[in-house]
Write a structure and sequence with these properties.
disordered C terminus; elongated; 3 domains; nine-stranded antiparallel sheet; 8 helices
Length: about 500
């Protein structure tokens, strides 16, 4: 009984203390209670005002609703805005390597030396003109006494062979009838074989002294000494009779004159007989005495050139992988009209095994088939060629390092970045809504977007260009609304 009374007294005391505390702290908790009631009242009012009103095209700063932008037709035209449909494609991620067009070492330059001592009597070429294998370069009158003596010895041997043949023809009937012993004919045949061996030795000596097989055949056929011979571009067949060199407009090899602007010009053939050489320099003149080995003419073969890539040492593993996988390289050349000239499907020939000690550059090489840009005829009928690619020309090489499959690929100006976020502008009726995306790769020209379902391939349209200007316009309109991204246009609160 006493314990129960005690509990009742303690309970009354606790209630009295709580009541006193509530009265003392009423200014603090009273504000909180009144604010909650006001908020509840405002929510109810907002629900009444917005009831039945559409929210299409509005961003209320919550959920998945995205900021939108309305552009007039005039604004779209002023921007030059273009839309593109989302498609999935494969994309090669590349690294950009500077390069330079160069001549192929040991193949693009050709020096024509004098093979005999003699005097230059006539030049058939001019610096800068184009020649083909077999075309005449110059005429030389030999002055070598040894060459003349060897030619004379060959002629005597040829004459002796003719006499032996006549003698064999004369005694053949007598040997067959038994009037002469067979030993006489046999001795003559042995003599002829000795003369044939001597002819072979003399022919080889003339080859060593600088005459060509065609020139020696001329000596044998005409039975005359060579008093003057023509130096020709190597690789061709000497004509049986004198012809005009390729430099004359009437020559059958002369190419047709094409317009200055390159339009679907086929690559030059790589067959040695069809190569086009340019005369780089002429080191002699009529009346000049030349000695064996002295340079006469410098020729340049620019039908095939070399692209020399200049990669940093850290990029060498990527270049080596591209070489091993035989992946295609793209080359971009700058042109006078600002339109880049591209060559695709190029293959790396080899990667140099040394690194420059100062620049830390490691070079790699790519063969490049050249093209004739135009051919012009001078006043004297000489043909001059202008080539599309020239040694010393700068080039940018796109070397593939990774293949990304089934990605969304857009121009770089279709994407806007703000800190860690990236956006594109997607068409929603006449509106443009800013959509957050995941960018896997971005450079100055291309953006690769992850296909995570945000954009629907074959359905969604996005702005192809001017994303930066669109984002500025969106921010401007959001700022005018004062709602931090909540557009209240058309709403009456």
């Amino acid at each position: 009984m006493k314990i129960g009374l005690k509990r009742i007294v303690i309970g009354l005391l606790l209630l009295t203390v709580c009541g006193a505390t509530a009265v003392a702290t009423r200014p603090q908790w009273g504000k909180w209670v009144n604010g909650a009631a006001a908020d509840s009242k405002d929510d109810g009012h907002a629900a009444d005002v917005h009831a039945g009103q559409g929210h299409e095209g509005h961003d209320h700063g919550g959920g998945d609703t995205k900021p939108v932008l309305t552009l007039s037709e005039q604004a779209r035209e002023n921007l030059g805005l273009e839309m593109t449909e989302i498609q999935l494609t494969d994309y090669w991620r590349t690294i950009q390597i500077p390069g330079i067009v160069a001549e192929q070492q040991g193949h693009s330059e050709r020096r024509i030396p004098a093979t005999v001592s003699g005097i230059v009597t006539k030049l058939h070429i001019f610096p800068g003109q184009s020649v083909r294998p077999g075309d005449a370069l110059m005429d030389i009158q030999p002055t070598s006494e040894l060459l003349t003596t060897t030619q004379a010895s060959l002629l005597r041997t040829l004459k002796d062979i003719e006499l032996i043949d006549l003698e064999l023809k004369r005694i053949a009937p007598f040997v067959e009838s038994g009037s002469l012993p067979a030993k006489t004919k046999l001795e003559k045949e042995y003599e002829r074989r000795r003369l044939e061996a001597m002819q072979l030795v003399q022919t080889q000596e003339l080859l060593v002294r600088g005459l060509s097989p065609e020139q020696i055949n001329t000596i044998v056929d005409s039975k005359t000494l060579i008093r003057q011979f023509t130096v020709r571009v190597p690789g061709g067949v000497a004509p049986e009779k004198p012809v005009e060199p390729m430099s004359r407009a009437s020559d059958a090899h002369s190419p047709a004159i094409v317009p200055a602007r390159l339009v679907n010009v086929e690559p030059q053939p790589t067959d040695p007989k069809d190569r086009i050489y340019s005369v780089e320099s002429v080191a002699v003149y009529p009346g000049k005495l030349v000695q064996p080995g002295e340079a006469l003419v410098e020729l340049a073969l620019h039908t095939i050139l070399d692209l020399t890539g200049q990669a940093f040492e850290r990029d060498s593993p990527l270049i080596l992988r591209t070489l091993q996988e035989n992946w295609p390289v793209e080359a971009t050349f700058e042109t006078s009209d600002g339109t880049p000239l591209k060559r695709e499907g190029l293959k790396i020939r080899y990667l140099e095994s040394s690194v420059d000690g100062l620049s830390r550059i490691q070079k790699f090489h790519i063969p490049l088939v050249n093209q004739v840009l135009r051919a012009t005829t001078g006043d004297d009928g000489i043909i001059y060629h202008a080539w599309l690619f020239r040694p010393g020309q700068r080039v940018r090489l796109s070397v593939p390092v990774e293949k990304l499959t089934q990605r969304i690929v857009l121009p770089a100006e279709a994407v806007i970045q703000e800190g860690a976020d990236a956006y594109v502008f997607r068409a929603n009726g006449k509106l443009l809504e800013r959509v957050a995306i995941v960018v896997e790769f971005l450079d100055a020209r291309t953006a690769v977007i992850k296909n995570d379902g945000t954009l629907t391939p074959g359905f969604d349209l996005v702005a192809k260009n001017h994303a930066y200007q669109l984002n500025l316009e969106l921010k401007k309109k959001m700022g005018e609304g004062g709602g931090g991204g909540h557009s209240h246009e058309g709403h009456n609160h």
